[in-house]
Amino acid sequence: MSTASRQNLNRRSFIGAAAAAAAVSMTAAARAEDRPAGSVKILGISGSMRKNKTTAQAMQIALDAAAAVSPAISVELIELSGLNLDPYIAAVNTKSVDRDDDFPALRAKLVAPEVGGVILGSPVYMGIVSSPMKCLIERLLDFRKNKYPLMGKVGGALAVGGGRNTGVELILQQLIMFMLSQSMVVVGEGPPTSHWGGTLWNHFGDDISKDVDGLPTVKAIGKRVAETALLIAGAKKP
Predict the structure, then answer these.
(1) Where exactly are the structural domains of the chain?
(2) CA-CA-CA-CA dihedral for 32, 33, 35, 38, to nearest 10
(3) Cα 23 to chain center, whole Å?
(4) Which of 225, 149, 236 is nearest to 185 (CA)?
(5) C-alpha closest to that of 86 among 107, 103, 108
(6) Residues near 206 by Cβ (< 8 Å), separated by ≥ 6?
(7) Residue 225 in contact with residue 63, Cβ under 8 Å?
(8) Is residue 160 within 8 Å of 208, Cβ to Cβ?
(9) First-to-final CA distance of the chain
(10) Position 238 pLDDT exceeds 60
(11) Sign of CA dihedral 136, 58, 77, 63
């Protein structure tokens, strides 16, 4: 195949992917027309130990993009920083009344029927998710023992690293594997790139706004989660 032919093929593929993405957006918008304002909720959970820092900022960008999809979308940012999520309770099957933690309130938010999507975000700590996010993941063994209440909810992932190639993809993999283990409907950032999720580089003194390559991916994952949540909500019986 000639270079010109390959270029034309790539151009057609890109245009086709963009058209497919536009079709999904239009379908999601159509599904949202008859839904009350704020009736489909997207939760964004920041797993950073640093409250209000880059992971929370990235999550808010993703949630803003989700909210922009339709008036039917409402959003909420949850920061795990400072919460006590005790994996022992789920692992040993101990009742929370015997060993209190902050999980019951978070559980109520996650299983609420209006929640159509959840975006999980974590900074990179030596190639693995943060300890607050890991505590949540392990605490949610409870869900696997109790009829998978996250089943059918849309999941998306984002990661913030100290450099461009410092393990953000590893974080996305870990979060995606967790969401699959909960029988969630996992999406990436969507066409035309269709990568695994949002990734940002915190290399500018906690100013992620300067990562011009990463910001579109974070906005895209928020948008994609919202669009898919609307499609699923529209397919359900009233």
Answers:
(1) 3-235
(2) 70
(3) 22
(4) 225
(5) 103
(6) 53, 54
(7) no
(8) yes
(9) 52
(10) no
(11) negative
- CA quadruple 67, 200, 77, 113: dihedral, nearest 10: 60
Q: Can you tell me the distance from the alpha carbon of 209 to that of 205, in angstroms, rounded to the nearest whole number?
A: 11
Token pair recorded at residue 147? 């009829």
Measured at the alpha carbon of residue 158, what is the angle toward residues 150 and 193, in degrees to the nearest 5? 105
Indicate the helix (H) or strand (E) that contains 11: helix 3-32
Nearest-angstrom CA–CA distance, 33 and 176: 30
Q: pTM of the predicted model, to two decimals? A: 0.82
Q: Which residues pair with 74 in a beta bridge?
A: 41
Q: Kindly indicate whether the domain formed by 3-235 is annotated with CATH number 1.20.1250.20.
A: no
| Token pair belonging to 161 | 């690293």
Greater confidence (205 vs 116) lies with 116
pLDDT digits (tens, 9 = 90+) for 79-94: 999 998 888 887 777 6
Q: 3-57: per-residue pLDDT in tens?
A: 555 455 445 443 444 444 444 555 555 555 566 776 899 999 999 989 889 899 9
Which of 201 and 92 is assigned the larger pLDDT? 201
